[in-house]
Amino acid sequence: DAGVTQSPTHLIKTRGQQVTLRCSPKSGHDTVSWYQQALGQGPQFIFQYYEEEERQRGNFPDRFSGHQFPNYSSELNVNALLLGDSALYLCASSLDRERSPLHFGNGTRLTVT
Amino acid sequence: KNQVEQSPQSLIILEGKNCTLQCNYTVSPFSNLRWYKQDTGRGPVSLTIMTFSENTKSNGRYTATLDADTKQSSLHITASQLSDSASYICVVSADSNYQLIWGAGTKLIIKP
Fold first, then answer.
1. Whole-angstrom Cα distance, residue B28 to residue A90?
2. By CB atoms within 10 Å of each CB, which of A50, A67, B28, B38 scores lowest?
């Protein structure tokens, strides 16, 4: 039973470019959340998708957008990259239940130069 | 403002010793409290989830406690092993829309 998979594992982009990160949830999970984690910090919630719609959103600008597909996989898009966007981007999947634990992928390390 | 604060920020102990990590929160309303372990460069892994009515929960050598009155939780690690070296993050779920508030984590280093 595959866990959460994310691609790519590492990415280097130039300031101003756009990037798309991908996530396949754990089998049976229908909810996908995205987090940004700066070095030495806890994860910061970006947004959550359920039934192909953005259900919740953290304090991130509109440059961050996402999508969830009918098979529950998800994409995170970041436009007009800034140096401060350099971070580990984590995808977590869960069931649509309040106490459902989050299952995380190992993230995409994005470096913006 | 909903906040989760963890202490200490970092901790170094010898292999085989016990340790306790602390988590204080000001989250209202409260739904549940979670502890995650995050190895360097990896995604967090869930250790425990506790609701208001649970004051202790164990997962192997990890034991979490919760005092909902004082809004404090602790994670106790017994007989530490080198593989316990990681960041331990406390997460509190508010009752509104399943919002999760994350602490900054405690970085634990186990030395042989």
1. 26
2. B28
